[in-house]
Write a structure and sequence with these properties.
438 residues, alpha/beta, 11 helices, 14 strands, 29% helix, disordered C terminus, binds S-adenosyl-L-homocysteine, binds iron/sulfur cluster
């Protein structure tokens, strides 16, 4: 496919209309690739965008802001960065001129670089984002992030890791070896970039070509951790990022509109509920251990019985706060009437919603999506047992943005090199490398 090549003006997305050549408008897909955004000469300066309040406080202390002023200054910066979407310290009119200059000398308000933006014919947008390098051996990770506009909500699907250590057999991301965990700043910044790209800040005009809400969809009202990675293998950063995203004086998303999806990392589930207080989704996909071992190999470590027990005791679970069980429909594998009846039996007593996901194919997969009448029949059995059983409409399939299709080409380092690198330069987390149980 032909692609358009352009400069995104120095990471100031408000001022960065995305030009798309006519040749790129094929089949309703607009593809912007090879964007040669040159990183601003941020040598030595780090971005404050997406930091937690505590991190922000530490940064201000580093440049000599007196202890007695810290709380007030954090409040001011928080307002500009997380509520107003400021991209320039000069906009911060209630911060004195001298401090603004000091801030600009030491820090930036840069976002992760938007390497490409693809727009599906159904309005779904997928961004390939490049995170700045965390050290001399890290070239900067690339991850994908997807925005799905619907009439009653706008959902942003964020990534928590670059790739995934787990190897669920039906998932494209699972074929990419994990490169690293994302920091909480990198996770929260995905929401900030997405707001930039669709013009979702108070008082800011949408950039040219942005999706305009009321045109069949909403600004970002929900966040789901269903992009690349296993969020519960990066729980510290996920919990902190949820704190940033849900702060009432900033990005302001309700925790009830933030859903973390896990393949079943049982020991971390209670912590997620207790500390992040978010909604939970479980990638169930099979109702027997032998089949789940094959589809979701983590099941060998945390089998169905343990997983369902952790759901029963998930903090805050109730009929008003149900757990979503995701079930991917794989032709001839997990889609029989018997599977549907067993599913209902297994979930008895757990406040649950069941989400049937038509399998999204990707190059090289051995699976096929169940036929439509099979999915309907399955859904009918689940529905008759008293569960809402919506079939999730695949979104953004044409741009490989649907569930399980995400994969970036970030260079993969060998595990040992990575470990050395991370202990040496203190990059974030050493994720469950031995947990490739996978
Ligand atoms: N790692 C987490 C979250 C990311 S995956 C997890 O596994 O829950 C988000 C959802 O997409 C999961 O339910 C996952 O099982 C599902 N998924 C993965 N590959 C898919 C595919 N090819 N088609 C449909 N759903 C898929
Ligand atoms: Fe990782 Fe989730 Fe994909 Fe499994 S389904 S490989 S846990 S991203």
């Amino acid at each position: 496919m032909a692609t358009a090549s352009l400069d995104i003006a120095k990471r100031n997305p408000h001022a960065a209309p995305v030009a798309v050549s006519d040749a790129a408008r094929l089949d309703g897909i607009e593809k912007v690739a090879e964007i040669t955004a040159v990183a601003a000469a941020a040598a030595g300066r780090v971005s404050l965008v997406g930091l937690t309040r505590d991190e922000l406080k530490a940064k201000l202390a580093d440049i000599g802001v007196p202890e007695r002023e810290l709380k007030m200054r954090v409040g001011q910066l928080w307002h500009w960065i997380s509520l107003r979407g400021a991209t320039d310290f000069e906009a911060m009119t209630n911060v004195g001129k001298a401090l603004r200059a000091r801030l600009a000398e030491a820090f930036t308000l840069e976002r992760p670089q938007v390497v490409s933006e693809q727009v599906s014919k159904d309005g779904t947008r997928k961004w390939l984002l490049r995170m700045p390098s965390t050290g001399p051996l890290d070239k900067g990770a690339e991850i994908e992030c997807v925005y799905i506009p619907e009439v009653d909500r706008g959902t942003l699907c964020v990534s928590s890791q670059v790739g995934c250590t787990l190897t669920c057999s039906f998932c494209h991301t699972g074929t990419q070896r994990l490169v690293r965990n994302l920091t909480s700043q990198e996770i929260a910044a995905q929401l900030i970039v997405a707001r930039d790209r669709i013009g979702d800040w108070p008082g800011h005009a949408a950039p040219q070509g942005a999706f305009v809400p009321n045109d069949g969809g909403r600004f970002i009202s929900n966040v789901v951790f269903m992009g690349m990675g296993e969020p519960l293998y990066n729980i510290d950063n996920v919990v902190n990022a949820i704190g940033v995203m849900s702060d009432n004086e900033g990005l302001g998303l309700s925790r009830r509109r933030i859903t973390v999806s896990t393949s079943g990392v049982v020991p971390q589930m209670a912590r997620l509920g207790g500390e992040a207080n978010s909604m939970l989704a479980i990638s169930l996909h099979a109702v027997r251990d032998d089949l789940r071992n094959e589809l979701v190999p983590l099941n060998k470590k945390y089998p169905l019985q343990d997983l369902l027990e952790a759901c029963r005791t998930y903090p805050g679970v109730s009929n008003a706060r149900r757990i979503t069980f995701e079930y991917v429909m794989l032709k001839g594998v997990n889609d029989s009437d018997r599977d549907a009846r067993e599913l209902v039996r297994l979930l008895k007593g757990i406040p649950a919603k069941i989400n049937l996901i038509p399998f999204n194919p990707w190059p090289g997969t051995k699976y096929e999506c169940s036929d439509w009448d099979r999915i309907e029949r399955f859904s009918e059995i689940v529905f008759r047992a008293g569960y809402a059983s919506p079939v999730r409409t695949p979104r953004g399939r044409d741009i490989l943005a649907a569930c399980g299709q995400l994969k970036s080409e970030t260079e993969k380092l060998r595990a040992r090199t990575r470990l050395m690198l991370e202990s040496g330069i203190g990059a974030e987390g050493v994720y469950a490398l031995s947990d490739g149980e996978a």
